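Quick one, T. Sequence first:
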Amino acid sequence: MKAFSLSPLTSLILKLVGIVLISTYLIDLIVYLITADFQNSQWVLNLTTQLVDRGFIPLVGLAILFTGFWVESNSDPATSGSSRGLRLTALWLASVLGLAFLLIAPWHFSTTRSAADDQIKKAEQNAASQQAQLDAQVQQLRAQVDAQANAADQAIKAGQLQGEELVRAKQLQKLKSDPKALEAQIAPARDQKQKEIQTQKQQIVDQTRKGALQTGLRICLNSLLLAFGYATIGWVGLRQLFNLQEPRGS
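Structure tokens:
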């Protein structure tokens, strides 16, 4: 007697827990859509990642909900028909979620590639900007050497320099008159800086592509698995539900 009286309570608890889990996920989805920014690839990536990472919650909710239906039908078969509307709603929801996760997979993959391309483009622009700054610094250094060489030339002609100052002045004259000598002094530091710029850019590009591939594959595969799970529950459940209804109507 106790086992029989406990079954309706067990069924109620299971159905309530299942509904709460499913509703929690749907509420989160509604909140995300209220602040929708589909033009922002980063927002889209965050949306699809959150939906897929938490996509198991309604799946668990459906499992618990239908366990409640099973307990209900075994404890009191006469009352099992009262939950038909809720069963139908849950199965349609599972079918819709299956289709949604099937569409999320290519959407996320496309957005991931687009976001990665944007980050790579920014890295290339940043590298180009740094290269332009380096070129400007080299030109500025050349101009300074020319200006100092001209001043040194005038000072030598005026006989104002002696000793070490005269030696340095002649070195400046040599740098001005011999571009290769100036290039030999500038090249090591300039080439090192260029190498650092290119290395940094390549690291960003490699990390971006690797991260996009890993994240894209993880989310896409999980989304397809969720799509298969929801679609199986929805379509198989709807077919069985309608098949059970046909003999009654005949």
